[in-house]
């Protein structure tokens, strides 16, 4: 896999956008990567939030660890609602003599206020549209994103 912003030239195009946020045909949040490799703000923010809140268990760039699975693989088989439910409600897997527990993060504002951002970052990684490491360039922060952050975090 390439290490640059775009892992390959042909990436999926969003079905729609509003205020700097992109959506797929089902209305779920998705990423947008320009031909020059510039990512949308939500994808960039997702990289930052993933690195801050998820990396310690799921490893760098969503690649997994001995402690938790690779989310770049998980997002190949689960949809957006399942991702949200898992993060918010947690998950417990027993098997092969191991117990793996994903804690419920539904009340963690550092995760839930940015859940769409984290999802679109991981989806871009899972689809092979985004390489490893910090995206080199990104679109400006939309005013709607900043307002939603302030509202969610309670800093309005």
TrEMBL record:
Residues 1-21, 130-156 are annotated as: Disordered. Gene3D superfamilies: Cytochrome c-like domain (1.10.760.10). InterPro entries: C-typ_cyt_methanol_metab-rel, Cyt_c-like_dom_sf. NCBIfam families: 4cys_cytochr (TIGR03874). This is C-type cytochrome, methanol metabolism-related. It comes from Candidatus Rhodoblastus alkanivorans. The lineage of its organism: Bacteria, Pseudomonadati, Pseudomonadota, Alphaproteobacteria, Hyphomicrobiales.
């Amino acid at each position: 896999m390439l290490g640059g912003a775009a892992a390959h030239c042909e990436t999926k195009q969003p079905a729609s956008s509003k205020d700097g946020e992109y959506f797929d045909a089902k209305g779920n949040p998705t990423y947008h990567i320009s031909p020059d490799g510039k990512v949308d703000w939500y994808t960039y923010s997702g990289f930052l939030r993933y690195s801050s809140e998820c990396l310690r268990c799921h490893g760098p760039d969503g690649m997994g660890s001995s402690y938790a699975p690779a989310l770049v693989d998980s997002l190949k088989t689960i949809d957006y609602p399942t991702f949200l439910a898992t993060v918010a409600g947690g998950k417990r897997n027993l098997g092969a003599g191991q117990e793996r527990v994903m804690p419920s993060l539904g009340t963690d504002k550092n995760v839930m206020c940015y859940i769409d951002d984290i999802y679109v970052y991981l989806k871009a990684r899972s689809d092979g549209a985004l390489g490893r490491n910090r995206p080199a360039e990104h679109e400006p922060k939309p005013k709607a994103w900043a307002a939603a952050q302030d509202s969610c975090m309670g800093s309005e």
